[in-house]
Design brief:
This protein is α+β, with helices and mostly antiparallel strands. Helices cover about 25% and strands about 40% of the residues. It has a 5-stranded antiparallel sheet with strand order 1-3-4-5-2. It is globular, with a radius of gyration of 16 Å. The relative contact order is 0.23. The mean pLDDT is about 95.
């Protein structure tokens, strides 16, 4: 594992009906849903550190503190950006932001934990057995 402060990535979408608060059940309006913006921020974060992970490693989100400050209509592009701000063993902290064509629509902090994918999935699916 080779993770460093400053690693960064972006994730982009063009908002469709499938991305709206109405579709996600997080509201009644046909605008970008907060859960969809959140997922885009997490996507940017895991992509930022993926090149520094060893074979068989992945990452999972463990905390997210964000604001969603402005609405984005269907048809407009959204870009989320994540940058590593701290690495403490397997815990990685990020600054995250999202923008549409008119400016910043949200931001905050996110933490991910580096995991061994096989062990993590085994632990997860063991829940079905007991």
């Amino acid at each position: 594992m080779n993770l460093t402060v400053g690693m960064a990535a972006e994730a982009k979408i063009t908002v469709t009906e499938a991305d709206t608060a109405l579709t996600h059940g997080s509201g009644t309006l046909p605008v970008l849903a907060t859960p969809r913006m959140t997922a885009l921020m997490e996507q940017a974060a895991w992509q930022a550190i993926a090149p520094g992970l060893d074979e068989g490693q992945g990452s999972v989100g463990v905390s997210l503190t964000i604001t969603h400050d402005a609405p984005t209509p269907v048809g407009m592009a959204v870009t989320a950006r994540a940058e590593v701000t701290a690495v403490n063993g397997r815990k990685v902290a990020f600054a995250v932001e999202a923008f549409d064509a008119r400016g910043r629509i949200g931001g905050g902090t996110h933490e991910r934990f580096v995991i061994g994918e096989e062990k993590f999935l085994a632990k997860c699916y063991a829940k079905l057995e007991g």
